[in-house]
Amino acid sequence: MSMPRPLVSVGLYISSPVSYILAVDLITRGKPHPEGKILIIGGGIANFTNVAATFKGIIRALQEYKAPLINHQVRIYVRRGGPNYQEGLKAMRLLGESLGVPIKVYGPETHITEIVPLALSVKRETATPARSVPPTSPPSPSPSKAAAPSDSPLGVIQPDGGRSQPNDQIVRFETSASHSRPSYRPFDATTRSFVYGLQPRAIQGMLDFDYSCGRQTPSVAAMIYPFGGHHIQKFYWGTKETLLPVYTSVDDAVKKHPDVDVVVNFASSRSVYSSTLEILTYTQIKAIAIIAEGVPERHAREILHVATSKGVHIIGPATVGGIKPGCFKIGNSGGMMDNIIASKLYRPGSVGYVSKSGGMSNELNNILSLYTNGTYEGIAIGGDRYPGSTFIDHLLRYEEDPECKLLVLLGEVGGIEEYRVIEAVKEGKIKKPIIAWAIGTCAKMFATEVQFGHAGSLANSDRETADAKNRAMREAGFIVPETFEDLPQVLKETYDQLVGRGVIKPAPEREPPVIPMDYKWAQELGLIRKPAAFISTISDERGQELIYAGMRITDVFKEDIGLGGVVSLLWFKRRLPQWAAKFIEMVLMLTADHGPAVSG
Question: Which of 53, 140, 150, 322 has the most other CB atoms within 10 Å of its CB?
Fold first, then answer.
């Protein structure tokens, strides 16, 4: 797309007003353009960030620059998705009305980059807007694996000595023997895992996903946390609760849970190397997801070497993980439950994808739910230069899996992993339809080399540019759209062809069981309110600065009111005269050596 006007791109990662003021200041500099200016605020579907909260910074910045925005005739286009995005977009739309500045807002139903041609008035033929299939009645998870209630006042005594009673809010699950599964399918509805690290939020997300899928047992068997003693933690299972043990060593966990064959490793970049090598010494572990960023490349390559020799799948480092709809979710993959439900990840689809970016995985889940029957499996391999597994590793698995009918590859500028997939297609190792796109075609618009967000997203040669990769994949027989905006249309056309040939047989839709919202999240969204546990009329430490009886702590030191002055504020809730403050200090000095702990 040719650019008749100067283009400025500012990448912002946080919601600080200072960061957004920079962007607004840039667009209102210089002379007004006769055709006005355009400010595009684009973002993907967040995993667990409160989207409405992230808009507070840009709202404040736009309010401060109201006059320059109007003077420069700035038009604003916003696209965002994720938790509480509706309230965030609503706030932006109301802001436009109050400022007198045109602000158009779009949610995840709009393709992530579609607002760019919309803002630039570029006419394009888009795919027919997809509409969600109305759900049918929901099958709730069967409680067959949980202990059956009893009319006996003693309840049911478990083999381990535990007891369940009627109306018991604690759900217990029987540990079954490990299930064998083909090598091309490392995750299924029976997969059980350890979570290495104290990650209650991620674990609760995994259990909520399990419940929505109708799993018979939670996918998390236990946590491993070396820095505390053995203990138990409670988590929600639907509207009830279940208990998960926390072990201090991998050895203890493995002995207690022989059915576990996956580890989600949340260890930091400093300890992930040693912890992963320890995990690899246990033959029952068949897959490890390494979440940490900043893992030294030498450590990543050593982990990969050991894992390859033992036949263990590695996902990461620097990854959000992956998701197998209806079966298993790695950590925070797929985002919060509203995004899980909206993207229909509680039941399997027919499309398997692999990408580097975890954020773009959310976008793919959303696109696939709108234009196909959804995701079969999705993996984000991570953005480091030496990932534990590559595009070709997962695409070959999808090729071998009879339930996966359509493949999607979302590559990016930098590296040569896409060329390994091209060779596999040319050699006939991959025969299923494969739709592909390499992100980063905009790099040619910059005068110098551009390092994108991932460590490996930098083209070191012409062969590693996104344009070269897209051209090579198209020549090899991949289905490659002309632009990234055309990806939904290409997906829809290819999917419809497979349905027409009977390759894909869409299953009837179903609605997952309702999962109640957590109290803290509901309170953050402003859906509920709770009276304060206690009220202090003396001091206030809620803001960025401590306040004593209305006096800022900085003023306390600046005016040097002394100990007597502080006591007057805290005891009498007002600042007493200087003579009274001195009297208080004199009393304290006289009585300092009295009481039950006198000196001497």
Answer: 322
